[in-house]
Specification:
It contains 7 helices and no strands. By secondary structure, the protein is mainly α. Helix 2 crosses helix 6 and helix 6 packs across helix 7. The chain starts with a helix and ends in a 15-residue tail after the last helix.
């Protein structure tokens, strides 16, 4: 249900250390007022895709629950939300503007998580 790029992105994001996950979440919160909310809405996947993505992210983070919450109370929940939003952008990148895509994935790409490029087509 999820493409390979989305799977790779979610796995790499979920493997980040707790401090990096906290930083990514904080940046996403800051970016909400700069178009992040609208970008997130534009990246809404189908119900089946959302279910697959939620299962993937939760499965990757639950074994780390104690580690994440020891770093910062509520970080498990925050990390699930941040990774899910960014992974939706990867999954639905063709539906987003380049600016929306960058806004949603940059909190993770700035931390070294690879994301596929936006599928912008340069016309002559």
């Amino acid at each position: 249900m999820l493409d390979a790029a989305t799977e790779r992105f979610a796995a790499a994001a979920a493997a980040l250390p707790p401090a990096a996950l906290a930083a990514a979440f904080d940046r996403m919160v800051e970016d909400r007022s700069r178009g992040g909310r609208e970008a997130s809405r534009a990246a809404r996947p189908s119900a089946a895709q959302e279910s697959a993505l939620t299962h993937r992210v939760r499965g990757a983070l639950l074994p780390r629950a104690d580690e994440l919450d020891a770093h910062l109370t509520g970080l498990l929940s925050d990390a699930k939300a941040a990774i899910s939003i960014a992974a939706r952008a990867v999954l639905k990148r063709g539906r987003l503007t380049p600016e929306q895509y960058a806004l949603l994935v940059t909190p993770f790409t700035d931390l070294g998580v690879p994301a596929p490029p936006h599928p912008t087509v340069d016309l002559p």
